[in-house]
Amino acid sequence: MTSSGRARTQDVGGPPLSGDVTGGRALLGEARAQRPQQKAASVGRNRRSGLNPDMGTIRPVLLTVLFLSSASGSYPRAHNVTWKSTNFKTILTWEPKPSADYSYTVEFSAVGADKQRNSHCIRSSVTRCDLSSSLSDLNANYVADVLSEPPLGATSSLIEFPYSSSPRFCPYKDTDVGRLDFKLQVSEDKKKTTLYVTDPLTALFEDGRQLNIRDIFSSQLQYKVTYWKNKSTGKKVRLSASNVIEMTDLDRAKSYCFKVQAYIPSRSLDKQLGELSRTQCSDGDNQSVFEVYSVGVIAAAIFLILLLMGLVIAVTVVCYKRREAAQHSGKEGMPLQDV
Question: Which UniProt keywords apply (predicted)?
Answer without folding.
Answer: Blood coagulation, Disulfide bond, Glycoprotein, Hemostasis, Lipoprotein, Membrane, Palmitate, Signal, Transmembrane, Transmembrane helix
